[in-house]
Amino acid sequence: MALQSLDIARRSATTTEAPKVRETTEVAKLIDVSACIGCKACQAACMEWNDIRPEVGNNVGIYDNPQDLDDKTWTLMRFTEVEENGRLEWLIRKDGCMHCADPGCLKACPSPGAIIQYSNGIVDFHQENCVGCGYCITGCPFNIPRLSKTDNKAYKCSLCSDRVAVGQAPACAKACPTGAIKFGAKEDMVHYAEARIDDLKDRGYQNAGLYDPQGVGGTHVMYVLHHADKPTLYADLPENPQISPTVALWKGVAKPLALLALGATAIGSLFHYVMKGPNEVSKELEAEMEKEDAK
Amino acid sequence: MIRNPRDLQRYNASERANHWIVGICFILLALSGLAFFHPALFPLVNLFGGGTWARILHPWIGVVMAVFFVIMFFRFASLNLMGGKDWDWLSKVGKMVDGNDHDMPEQGKYNGGQKLLFWLLTLCMVLITVSGVVMWRSQFDFPTELVRIAVVVHAAAAAFMIGLIFVHVYAAIWTRGTIRAMLYGTVTRAWAKQHHRGWYRQMTGKD
Known about the structure:
B: mainly alpha
């Protein structure tokens, strides 16, 4: 879509500015975990809208189905049973791409234009530019992207960028029967979350709060959690996600410096030759051997 | 050029073939690897038929290189054991680079610089091969924490190794009469006496 290519905030493996004349409203999906009933309508809607059908798997005695995200499962309800305040709690978290403001996948990606961050905050994979190296998996602090075993391209939730581009909410938000998934301007979603958190606090969840981790610059998928002080309760949602320091080192200033050093070695060699001349065999030795040969 | 029958054989045909298999693999790996190393060099993937082909080919070429490097290692390792005279040579390498080789200690088949390079290249190959396997997503599935370390090790060791090879190639160009040793195997006696006198004496029985 031509117009959509004018509102790009960041483009993978690109060192110059992205075309960003159009400034769109920052959007967010708000998942209110406390209002989720685990019906998986969001999973079904995601499959339906995106035309992806994961293979039917096996029941291994848990509710998670399929058991993990894959190239055709871009969102997944993860069920956890915990005991909090002496009561059993069934925590259900809809897992999927968090659409980080500072996306580790995009930072790690070596292929120009394979990962795009739009100015509305959506981080989208453009599989036609994907080379299949899986660096995005290495870069992601949430363990989201998956390589397809059939085409070796990386896939994940697109936040229905195609729907959002024409003013529609993502398929999962549209399908949610309890209103646990809301979609809109990020500012509005934060505001809406505040009301939900106040309500939860009134109902005894003193640590209720919004999950919008600042370690990755905030996210465009946010959670309302009843136990925001312990996000790891929710199927290991990271407490303070950030781009791993080794990934930052790998993709940071070290690379241009290394290229500079290699360039300097090459140019230095040329100049050494030009200024010092070659290391030749001495004329005396050559004459000595010629004399030997003449014998 | 007429070859002098009294030239000294430095490498036999199988050693030369081994070296060039490793060398060709290295060039292909460096080009495809640098393409993924920095966006400015990404167009290098076109030499391999595009980004996806470069990603597919790179690790397999790496396997070939690793196998032939191991063979080459066992061919040359014993000749590259370092001793006091090698460190002595290395401590005076500044003079050598400056163009004056008169005060350099006598060297056998390899000088201290060549030996040090041999061991550094071996270290790089070990690091690059092991980390390369760990980051080979289409074949293996290692824990992400491990892959995160592997990618840094792979990039750092590879960049260092490319630098070492620049030095290796330049030294061969700079020291005239050297490259033929790896092309058709022989060097002149004068070359040997000047650069590797110990080896010259061993080969000719002369002083």
